[in-house]
Amino acid sequence: MTSVYECKWGILATGGIAETFSKDLLIDPSTRSVSDVKHTIVAAASSSSSSRATEFLKKVGADSSAKGYGSYEELVADPNVSIIYVATPHSHHYENTLLALEAGKHVCCEKPFTINAAQTKHLIKVAREKKLFLMEAVWIRFFPLVLELQRLIFEEKILGNVRRVFSDFGNQFAPDPKHRLYNPDLGGGALLDLGIYALTWQMITLFADPKNNKTAPSVVGSIVKTPLTNVDEFTTMILNFGPTLAQGIASTNMTIRCSDKYCVLIQGDKADISVPWAPYRPTSFTIHEKDSEGVYTGKEDKKDFDIPGHGMFWEADACARALRDGKLEEERCSLAESTITMEIMDKVRYSNDFRYPEKLEATRSDA
Ligand SMILES: NC(=O)C1=CN([C@@H]2O[C@H](COP(=O)(O)OP(=O)(O)OC[C@H]3O[C@@H](n4cnc5c(N)ncnc54)[C@H](OP(=O)(O)O)[C@@H]3O)[C@@H](O)[C@H]2O)C=CC1
Ligand SMILES: O=C1OC[C@@H](O)[C@H](O)[C@H]1O
Question: One Pfam family, short name please (predicted)?
């Protein structure tokens, strides 16, 4: 019998996504036909109190031996923890990930990796120097749906040449200046929180096209800021993928929910693929056949994908396998692609005069 690798997680922060991720970690891997890795939560930390961390561990169903800490420093010092999951607001990812790396821990950090590309590059430098695994938690990259979609596009070539991709993630949020989405001090705004999914769809379809030869796209973007807190409320980007002569249009906002039917439309010369809501947790896509003049023939093929939980366990399984195999990076969610994505967001923000407070944009002096 082959041995099962046990990945020992430390959960840094106890908010919404920390809870969702932790519950997913503890779902029996056999429910998703996985038998080579399993996950244990050995500790969690809350910046507010150790009792909050202990309550969190109970709520997510961690083993009673799991430790609850009242500071992130104590968590990263725990010798039983192998990998830290960073689940704080964007504003804190850079410092929290550095804290964990400097303590010698592998890290899986929530999206967006950091506030800007300079910070991402510094994290990569530290991880490489310390020979530690590092990944931005772009969970949809690991969905079986995405793997199948890429297989159909790049191996079976069912779309022919892919020439254009529309991707949108807009959602209707109550305009609350205290919510992290509206708060500039927490890295608020549509682009970093939601727009990163619209960009991920561009990366997994147009950037990943073998003909693109891993070339970063050129980008122009336009931003409308909310008068409430001056963070971006609407952002739209046009991306030109030079080697493939394909164009991407990626949009995001936090006022209008994107269409239930078409959040993503991948257009080739033989067929299109549409992906309905939700762009951050897709469960189906439809292939629309076209005739030689590019007109839909009416022949459609819908593919549905079951998610036995929320769907965050697939990225966790990838982290576990990387640790087991001594890999410092996961190729499905590479550090190079995270850097390119951050650079795109920087370019669009800075060219539209949208900067976060100086303390959020700063990198440490050794960066
Ligand atoms: N992959 C996905 O599907 C999703 C990813 N995310 C990402 O996860 C991150 C966290 O989002 P979410 O869980 O919704 O946020 P929450 O506000 O629900 O939780 C954030 C947690 O971070 C900790 N924290 C530390 N410092 C601060 C601070 N100054 N202000 C607020 N919280 C602080 C708190 O935990 P404590 O008190 O325990 O320290 C808090 O509970 C974001 O970067 C977001 O992009 C969010 C939702 C979905
Ligand atoms: O990652 C996310 O996906 C779902 C959104 O509603 C959330 O704001 C975002 O952080």
Answer: GFO_IDH_MocA_C3
Give distance in angstroms: CA of 349 to centre of ligand 2. Answer: 20
Ligand minimally distant from the alpha carbon of residue 254? 2
Identity of the amino acid at 81: V
Per-residue b/e over 59-98, b at no fewer than 16 CB within 10 Å? ebebeeebbbbbebebbbebeebbbbbbbbbbbbbbebbb
Contact 146, 324 (CB under 8 A): no
Distance of CA 101 to the CA centre of its chain: 19
Ligand 2 midpoint to CA 194 (Å): 6
- Residue 84's pLDDT is 99
Mean pLDDT of the chain: 97
Ligand with an atom nearest the CA of residue 87? 1
Q: Would you say residue 2 has pLDDT above 90? A: no
Pocket of ligand 2 (CB under 6 A): 171, 193, 280
User: Atom 10, ligand 2: which residue's CA is nearest?
Assistant: 193
CA of 134 to the centre of ligand 2 (A): 21
Task: Tell the residue nearest (CA) to atom 4 of ligand 2.
Answer: 280
**CA–CA dist 116, 341 (Å, integer):** 10
- Interface confidence: ipTM more than 0.95: yes
**pLDDT tens profile 253-274:** 999 999 999 999 999 999 999 9
In short, whether 89's Cβ falls inside 6 Å of ligand 1 is yes
Best residue for ligand 1 mutational test, from 21, 48, 54, 110 (most atoms within 8 Å of Cβ): 110
Q: Among 226, 220, 254, 199, which residue's Cα sits nearest to residue 352? A: 220
Q: How far is the CA of 291 from the centre of ligand 2 (A)?
A: 37
Domain ranges of the chain: 5-139+311-332, 144-304
The single-letter code of the amino acid at 246 is A
Q: Tell me the whole-structure pTM to 2 decimals.
A: 0.98
Q: Which CATH architecture has domain 5-139+311-332?
A: 3-Layer(aba) Sandwich (3.40)
pLDDT at 365: 82
How many CB atoms are located within 10 Å of the residue 278 CB? Answer: 16
| CATH match of 144-304 with 3.30.360.10 | yes
Q: Is the CB of 14 under 6 A from ligand 1?
A: yes
**pLDDT at 366 (0 to 100):** 79
